[in-house]
Design brief:
It holds the Pfam family T4_baseplate. The chain has 2 domains: 154 residues, no CATH class; 71 residues, no CATH class. The strands form 3 sheets. Strands 3-4-5-6 form a 4-stranded antiparallel sheet. A two-stranded antiparallel ribbon has the order 1-2. It is elongated and about 75 Å long. The two termini are 36 Å apart. A hairpin with a 2-residue loop joins strand 5 and strand 6. The protein has 11 helices and 8 strands. The longest helix is centred in the C-terminal third of the chain and has 27 residues. The structure holds zinc ion. Zinc ion binds next to loops. The site of zinc ion has 8 residues, from loops.
């Protein structure tokens, strides 16, 4: 994996604008791992995928994430920074099993961890409940209760919920939650950091900045887009200051 170049950022942005977030994540990985097939990258678990995206973000834009949140109680706007090390919950090279066994209160069976194919399959589901049920149907490979085979619909909700917790423990990077506390009203709550949408928003802003820089430099010096994009950011900024 290497940092994304300016040219790659623009190409990814162009392709990704028309894509669902699940496919945007894959587009980013395809550019980072050109020797891997899309099917292989889509088969990574959600946690493995997000660990790679976090590593790519770190290489391309650095270790510090500038975050914003709004207090759900009083509406106060919070600005804070996170270091990538604080939200790295698993090692991207850590190997996972194709499937896992579970035994919870008399229910037992096997499941696999959700991947991008699963996320794509549930993307069109109307409600979170339907999506949850579709995900369970896809990832639950077999289930038994007292020796009798049962379907995913026959698993009681408390067992499903324990199974989800178990999955999150095995693939922790799939869900990054962290605690916030409001300086204005002391309300405490947890927010979910979605690395795909976070990184995408940053790349979109970066792409727009790059286009503006190309526009200004090309207009002033008549340089070609490809040459301007191939320059380092430092060099582009110096030229921009000179013409500014
Ligand atoms: Zn507040």
């Amino acid at each position: 994996m290497r940092p994304l170049s300016s040219e790659q950022i623009l190409r990814i942005w162009e392709i990704g604008q028309r894509q669902h977030p699940v496919d945007r994540a894959l587009t980013l990985l395809v550019f980072s791992y050109p020797d891997q097939s899309v099917a292989n990258l889509a088969s990574l678990t959600v946690g493995q995928r997000d660990a790679l995206l976090l590593a790519l973000r770190e290489m391309t834009l650095g270790n510090t994430l500038n975050c914003f949140a709004q207090c759900p109680q009083c509406g106060e706007e919070l600005e804070f920074t996170l270091e990538t090390a604080q939200i790295r919950l698993s090692d991207p090279s850590q190997s996972l099993e194709p499937d896992y066994a579970f035994t919870i209160a008399g229910f037992e069976g096997r499941f696999r961890l959700p991947n991008s194919f699963d996320l794509a399959a549930i993307a069109g589901d109307q409600t979170p409940e339907i999506a949850k049920s579709s995900l369970l149907r896809r990832c639950l490979l077999q289930a038994h209760h007292n020796g009798t085979e049962i379907s995913h619909q026959e698993l009681p909700p408390p067992i499903v919920s324990q199974l989800a917790t178990h999955m999150a423990e095995i693939d922790p990077q799939a869900e990054i939650l962290f605690d916030l506390s409001c300086p204005a009203c002391q309300h405490e709550w947890q927010i979910l950091l979605d690395i795909v949408s976070f990184f995408w928003a940053e790349l979109s802003a970066q792409a727009r900045r790059l286009l503006l820089e190309v526009h200004q430099l090309a207009r002033h010096y008549s340089w070609h887009e490809v040459d301007i994009l191939a320059m380092s950011a430092t060099r582009r900024n110096l030229y921009l200051k000179m013409i500014g």
